[in-house]
Design a protein that fits this description.
Strand order of the largest sheet: 1-24-23-22-21
Largest sheet: 5 strands, antiparallel
Number of strands: 27
Structural class: mainly beta
Distance between the termini: 45 Å
Order of helices and strands: HHEEEEEEEEEEEEEEEEEEEEEEEEEEE
Helix content: under 10%
CATH architecture of one domain: 6 Propeller
CATH class of one domain: Mainly Beta
């Protein structure tokens, strides 16, 4: 079953629009943009080659999300309309590996097990090799999550995830009276970290693990928090805001490189920020991206899930990938 989804990067107003039937179809039918590299600072060219080319890896999906690079040489990609997670290879081959209602953001844990957010299940689940799944968490203080959206591995080995109402299944009630960010420990314990965002979405740790970035798709803001030794979040503050014309996109998925630069989906494509909150430039993508992941053996390639397709862009940066050991 497909709920009437968010995908509010289509437009800020899509906090309302995306719950209407056909909203995502309208986004897919919109004329595609042209790939472009738009620098706001000379520092942008230290991360992206001026001659870099965007390559379409695979297409024909319903709505792509949750890319995760597996060190065995392929990408896991969620398709929220086909209700499946696919294994997608750089040569375009693809095969379904898991089926569930409305899969969204994913990560690998320290043991390289696939962890995903399952909106219809309202849960964080571990995908087994045979295509079955195990629920890791679906409640906080006895109440069901709203619709877990994105998940990342923390420096302490715990899973950190956002729980907005953006994908709350149609006809079901919100049980938790806020949209939170949580820590899921290896022992199964669930701890609320913050509830001060309107619709928390993508999240990423800084390479040193001392800061956590979380974007709010409703307010178009990227927030930054200091991370304590036990995973607690303090000193929440504004890092940046991604303003843009109507129907051009809002903050959603995000990734960080080894030097702490942020790559965040936003209006027209991928916004690139330095660690001080300066917008360095934008990677304009033909279809509106929802998420991205570092991939290939050197983790210098951005794999971008954008509406019906998966794209690839080589960069000068080296991605920070929490589930992989650091290589200098």
């Amino acid at each position: 079953m497909l709920n009437h989804r968010k995908r509010i990067f289509v437009t800020l107003a899509a906090a309302c629009l995306a719950f209407q039937p056909g909203a995502r179809l309208a986004a897919q039918s919109r004329p595609k943009r042209q790939f472009e590299l738009k620098a706001e600072s000379p520092q942008f060219w230290k991360l992206i080659d001026r001659r870099a080319k965007l390559r379409k890896v695979a297409g024909g999906f319903g709505f792509t999300e949750g890319p995760v690079w597996d060190p065995n040489g392929y990408l896991f990609v969620s398709d929220e309309e086909q209700n499946k997670i696919f294994r997608v290879f750089p040569d375009g081959r693809q095969a379904a590996v898991f089926e569930t209602g409305d899969p969204d953001g994913s990560t690998l844990d320290r043991n390289h097990r696939l962890i995903t957010t399952a909106s219809v299940l309202r849960a964080i689940v571990e995908v087994q090799p045979d295509g079955s799944y195990r629920v890791l968490a679906d409640k906080y203080e006895g109440k069901r999550f709203n619709s877990p959206n994105d998940v990342v591995l923390g420096p302490d080995g715990a899973l950190y995830f956002t729980d907005p109402t953006l994908d709350l299944p149609k006809g079901q009630q919100q049980e938790i009276p806020f949209q939170g960010v949580y820590r899921l420990g290896a022992d199964g314990s669930v701890r609320l970290l913050t509830q001060d965002l309107v619709q928390p979405n993508g999240l990423a740790f800084s390479p040193d693990g001392l800061r956590l970035y979380i974007d709010d798709s409703k307010t178009r803001e990227i927030r930054i928090y200091d991370v304590g030794s036990s995973g607690e979040l303090t000193n929440g503050r504004l890092f940046g805001k991604e303003e843009g014309p109507p129907r051009s996109g809002v903050p959603d998925g995000m990734k960080v490189d080894r030097k702490g630069n942020l790559f965040v989906t936003g209006p027209l494509g991928i916004w690139v920020w330095d660690a001080s909150g300066n917008h360095l430039g934008t990677i304009v993508v033909p279809e509106q991206p929802a998420n991205l992941a570092w991939g290939d053996s050197d983790f210098r390639t951005l794999y971008i899930t954008a509406t019906t397709s998966v794209y690839q862009l080589r960069t000068k940066a080296r991605g920070f990938v929490p589930y992989m050991p650091s290589k200098r």
